[in-house]
Amino acid sequence: MTTTTLAALVPLLPFLGAVAGLALGRTAPGFVRPLAILPTLTAAVLAVIVAVRQGGGRAIDAATQLTPTGSVPIDLALHLDGFAVLTAVLVGLVATCVQLYSTAYLRDDARYPSYAALVSLFTSAMLLVVYSGDLMVLLVGWEIMGICSYFLVGHYWETPEARAASLKAFLVTKLGDVPFLIGLFALAADTGSFRITEILAAVAHGGLDHPTLIALLLLAGVAGKSAQFPLHTWLPDAMAGPTPVSALIHAATMVAAGIYFVARLLPVFAASDAALTVLAVMAAVTMIGSGLAALAQDDIKRVLAYSTIGQLGYMSGALAVGDRGAAVFHLLSHGAFKAVLFLAAGVVIHAAGTNSLAAMSRMGGLARRVPDAYWTMTVALLALAAIPPFAGFFSKEAVLVAAEHTALGERTVAPAAAGWTVLLAGLLAAVLTAAYATRLWLLAFRGRGAELPDHGGQPLAMTSVLWVLAAPTIAFGLAAGLLGDWFDGHALTPSLTTAVLSTGVGLVGGLVTYGAWRHTTALAARTPIGAVAAHPGAEPALVEAEAMTSHTAAYGTIADAADPADPGRLILGPLHRHAVTGFHLDALYTALFVRPVQQAARLVRFLDRTVIDTYVNGSGAVTRLLGTAVRRAQTGNVQTYLSVLLAGSLVLVIAAVVFANVNAGS
């Protein structure tokens, strides 16, 4: 088969698996798991073959007109360059591991057939975004991911946290999608095409009439989809969904889609210095704010969620300084180690019976109970903290090197101010990243207290995929030197200055956190924390749902725990109460948008029920009164009818005579 045929099968196979899984979920449940795993696994294998055939060389394009529109045509197009084929491999690998993991994680879940089908559809939609060469077709995958996230985040719909999180994720991302759609149409109007290759050619020849407006409209959609400030607030709450869904969203789909979109269309954004500056500021605020928030969270998954927001900020920063190679490099390495972190967190939650780091810090022996999760999570946290030689070190260094070159004027794609903004924010975020990664590891695996009961080993389907994903977490950075052709042909090697700076500040962040932990750990024995309500011997998904409910019941919120032994509380000081709430952005949005909309809805309801309904009901009442009067005249007595007829006739005759005399007299 040709490379384009294989590429067309990559998104098609998970889609067919989703359709078949939904169709056979009730009638033949034995086929559900094979239909969830095999199409996705096959798609991953085909994606590897496509990547090998493409080889980082010239992009492969194929297209056929989908439908005539009368103006700008819409094509069913493939665009296979180095970025696309490597990203598709990541999506296929993570999705396959998530499907395997889910067979054990939701082994007794009655809704597993629909869950597995939605994961396959989610995967298909992301692969469509990755391979698509036409923006309208890309938009189809973009929106399908949005609706899939709504259903998957709300999988535990019995819990209020999941219901609220799914609705919030849908509404916030749709808020960004409205200007995004306007931007797509404006871009097509300026360039005369939805084809990515034709758009880029038009931009290269100065074909954009409104570059700043278009870029800013598109950035709104990217901010929503990739959880960047100020539309990032949905992502931490989305942790109310199953852990494998969190891994899929954070590592390989949805949030990666926005970054990938900007990388694909970077010349459009580079046509406006103002847009790149806005992107740089957005990335800087996102990196620093999310790092502070992660340091204050008690829910282990919310720590990782804010971590994702911050790492996406690094990717946005790389794009803001005009280096899409560094951005996609970090996207790929982050996808590997973040999938490990979330899937390992699921194992930890199952074993501990809680998602609370405060509760875990009072448990002994957790590391011995889950050795696979312990070692793979340790490796992934080192990669997250950008400690060499793990993948995160090389990819984060590529971002900082790109920012350094722009700041010093060695690259002129973006303004120097954007370079300095990204570089300084990236170094500060490196301190925070190392700090919250160290805090998570210490609280989860170095707890002191009663020995954790042994509930047996974790399912092989859950632990084996951790090692599969740990391999690229360890080796991908070392192999990046061999993949230069896939990244626009330029090297992604670290520079001595940024490597020493970022590693040094990261070590400082880790050591400060360790010192704070040593200072506060004695308090843990004196302060009981009682958020463990789930039984670790139950199904992992049930344990997670109960852990969320018990956390909120014990502490009043999913984000915080009043734990004086928390080193994050000591490090942040008075800033902690603001950081734990995400700096009150939800409260601000509630005051600025939610409450005014609710008040407007109440006003509309009042006008509808009190004013409009009064007129409608009044007209009905008048008609009813007239009908009553006429009905009373209908007595059924013939003599009465004749008398009325004669009286009426007499009145008409008299009126006619009077009228005639009046006319004659005049």
TrEMBL record:
Q: Which residues form the NADH-Ubiquinone oxidoreductase (complex I) chain 5 N-terminal domain?
A: 68-115
Is Methyltransferase among the key words of this record?
no
Keyword NADP annotated? no
Which Gene3D superfamilies does the record associate with it?
1.20.5.2700
- For this protein, the parts annotated as crossing the membrane are 35-52, 83-106, 112-130, 137-157, 169-187, 199-223, 243-263, 275-296, 339-361, 373-394, 414-438, 459-484, 496-517, 641-662
- Membrane topology annotation: Multi-pass membrane protein
What are the alphabetically sorted keywords of the record? Membrane, Oxidoreductase, Transmembrane, Transmembrane helix
EC no. given is 1.6.5.-
Sequence ranges assigned to domain NADH:quinone oxidoreductase/Mrp antiporter transmembrane in this UniProt record: 132-403
Pfam families in UniProt: Proton_antipo_M, Proton_antipo_N
Q: Which GO terms describe its molecular function?
A: oxidoreductase activity
Q: What is its main location?
A: membrane
**PANTHER family, alphabetized:** NADH-UBIQUINONE OXIDOREDUCTASE CHAIN 5
NCBIfam families per the record? NDH_I_L (TIGR01974)
Protein name, per record: NADH-quinone oxidoreductase subunit L
